[in-house]
Description:
By secondary structure, this protein is an alpha+beta fold. It folds into two domains: 1-80, no CATH class; 83-133. Helices cover 37% and strands 12% of the residues. The protein has helices spanning 65-78, 91-104, 112-132, and strands at residues 4-7, 10-13, 45-48, 60-63. A hairpin with a 2-residue loop joins strand 1 (4-7) and strand 2. The longest helix is centred in the C-terminal third of the chain and has 21 residues, at 112-132. The relative contact order is 0.10. The model has no long low-confidence stretch (mean pLDDT 82). Bound molecules: zinc ion. Zinc ion binds at residues 23, 25-26, 28, 63-64, 66-67.
Amino acid sequence: MTNTIGFKGQTIHLDSEPRIRVCNRCRYVVGKIHPITGKVYTKTHRHHEVYDYNDPMAHTIELCPPCHRIADFENYVTKSNMAKLLVVIPDELEKRLREHIQVRYKGKKQGFITYTVTEAIERYLQEEERKKE
Ligand SMILES: [Zn+2]
């Protein structure tokens, strides 16, 4: 068990283990089979509802990996600083994206296209920024 939390891409070291290994949202317990995904996770995450640069542990809750992904996505959609992009992509790429979302998110959430595309753009930009360093 490591006494660290992620904070804006950095790893913050803490004096003690901040997690109790139970998800605050779905009550999943680390090491058990997750009731929704059927996977076994080895750790929980510390989710930041708000980032406080003076106190990285402030406004955090402990979540299992699937709940963390959903919480980040919900935070993201509720923020008002959203831009709309109208993009044209090849049919084949769109088909593959929809199939991927169907499998990964069981096709339930319309918003996962936005989430997935945002994640892809972020990865692309991180990669490009890393090349410049
Ligand atoms: Zn959970």
